[in-house]
Design a protein that fits this description.
Length: 247
């Protein structure tokens, strides 16, 4: 197949990619639509023109209510992760985690550990036999910040800044930033170190919307760990590509 669209329907955003001649040509992040009629207003003109041209669309979704909007498009194919040759995948495992793991293994080799930093921060690992070893899920950067803001009376709403913030803060916003980011970095370091103890030759791939942010902090805070991590923000799309190739 020369060209196709991939769509990841996440908990907070839609993530699109356009593949042509086996390479990612362009990506977009958009808000969720309530109906097909909204698409011309929320999609980039180029992306919308691809949909109108009925370029094949492959969808991986963790939000069924949003998925149904695109089922009426004649070019839509819903990805079935059960056909992938990964072992011990459990029934409730998210298709996004499965595709990211498959994309990582096919691109970098098995064993591998995927750290996906989206709405949730997830860890997903497989051994050299493409068997799921397991993983973990915890709130991601923005979700932790939002939880503190919406569930406390006095704490302000803040965002993680791109510059490296000090661990020991002298005001409330910085204290929140420090608590969230340094805890997440420590968690990534702990899980990565444990994984490498079990699989010392394994690749570790960091992906997701906050991947670059977390990697920048890792380089400063845990350089020995960051040197063993590969940054690839398009890992799930690579998983879709491998899925299509195997059809």
């Amino acid at each position: 197949m020369n060209n196709w669209l991939g769509l990841i329907i996440g908990n907070s955003r839609l993530h699109w990619c356009y593949f042509q001649d086996e390479k990612i040509q362009q990506t977009w992040n958009t808000s969720q639509a309530e109906s097909l009629a909204e698409l011309p207003h929320i999609l980039d003109k180029t992306l919308y023109s691809y949909l109108k041209a009925q370029i094949p669309l492959y969808i991986a979704s963790v939000v069924p209510s949003v998925t149904k909007i695109y089922l009426s498009l004649p070019q839509t194919t819903i990805i079935n992760p059960n056909i992938l040759p990964l072992q011990d995948i459990y029934s409730t495992m998210g298709v996004d985690r499965i595709l990211a793991l498959w994309g990582a293994g096919c691109t970098y080799g098995f064993p591998c550990l995927v750290i996906d930093s989206g709405t949730a921060l997830t860890f997903t690992g497989a051994d050299e036999d493409k068997k799921l070893i397991g993983g973990a899920i915890l709130p991601g950067v923005k979700l932790q910040l939002q939880t503190l803001f919406f569930n406390t009376a006095a704490l302000p709403e803040v965002e993680i800044i791109r510059e490296i913030i000090p661990r020991w803060a002298k005001n409330t916003p910085c204290a929140i930033q420090s608590g969230v980011i340094y805890t997440l970095i420590a968690t990534i370091g702990d899980f990565s170190q444990d994984w490498l103890t079990k699989y010392p030759e394994s690749n570790i791939i960091l992906t997701g919307g906050d991947a670059l942010l977390l990697f920048q902090y890792l380089e400063v805070i845990l350089p020995d760990i960051s040197n063993k991590i590969v940054l690839n923000s398009h890992l799930i799309f690579l998983g879709i590509q491998k899925y299509i190739e195997d059809l």
